[in-house]
């Protein structure tokens, strides 16, 4: 009798966990950044801070661009845009025609794509754990 009660308790707990899991999986909150993409433009010559401000304000005025960061020492423009409203080719063409400094759209090679997110520290525990899971 005692084993039956324990078994029913465990079964009830498992059913409850399953119901909660199904509810949480089917009632997700909308993702606020769904369709967002990051892109980068490399400036082929050094830029000064005044040029960086002009480029940043120009990029932010383009429809679909949500944010923009210009890294003056590295000579890069990184921006986030909505894939449903804009494409990186259009933003690049706009920057290339606007900027007095020649630029080039960054397109990752196969090695970059295989390494995953460039912002993630490859020696971190999270990166090693994700790679371990991915290798299954």
Structure description:
The chain is an alpha+beta fold. The chain folds into two domains: 1-30; 36-115, Alpha-Beta Plaits (2-Layer Sandwich). The protein is 47% helix and 18% strand. The chain contains five helices and four strands. A four-stranded antiparallel beta sheet has the order 2-3-1-4, covered by helices on one side. Strand 2 (65-71) and strand 3 (76-82) form a beta hairpin. The protein is elongated. The mean pLDDT is 89.
List the helices and strands and how they pair.
Blueprint lengths: L1 H25 L9 E8 L5 H12 L4 E7 L4 E7 L5 H11 L4 E3 L4 H6 L9 H10 L2
Antiparallel strand pairs: 1-3, 1-4, 2-3
What structural keywords apply?
136 residues; Alpha-Beta Plaits; alpha+beta; 5 helices; 4 strands
Q: Strand tally, please?
A: 4
Shape: elongated
| Gap between N and C termini | 43 Å
Helical proportion, percent range: 40-55%
Structural class of the helices, strands and pairings? alpha+beta
At the first level of CATH, what is the class of the largest domain?
A: Alpha Beta
Which sheet architecture does the biggest sheet show? 4 strands, antiparallel
Mean pLDDT reading: 89
The name CATH uses for the topology of the largest domain is Alpha-Beta Plaits
Strand content: 15-25%
Give the topology string: H per helix, E per strand.
HEHEEHEHH
Helix segment tally:
5
Low-confidence stretches: none
Biggest sheet: strand arrangement = 2-3-1-4
Q: Using the CA coordinates, give the radius of gyration.
A: 24 Å
What would CATH call the architecture of the largest domain?
2-Layer Sandwich
């Amino acid at each position: 009798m005692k084993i039956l009660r324990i078994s029913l308790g465990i079964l009830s707990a498992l059913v409850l966990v399953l119901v909660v899991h199904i509810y949480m999986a089917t009632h997700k909150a909308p993702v606020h950044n769904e369709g967002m993409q990051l892109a980068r433009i490399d400036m082929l010559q050094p830029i000064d801070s005044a040029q960086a401000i002009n480029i940043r304000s120009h990029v932010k005025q383009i429809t679909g661009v949500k944010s923009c960061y210009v890294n003056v020492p590295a000579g890069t423009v990184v921006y986030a845009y909505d894939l449903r409203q804009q494409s990186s080719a259009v933003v690049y063409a706009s920057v290339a025609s606007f900027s007095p400094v020649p630029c080039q759209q960054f397109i990752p090679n196969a090695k970059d794509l295989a390494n995953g997110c460039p912002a993630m520290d490859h020696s971190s525990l999270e990166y090693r754990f994700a790679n371990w899971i991915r290798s299954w």
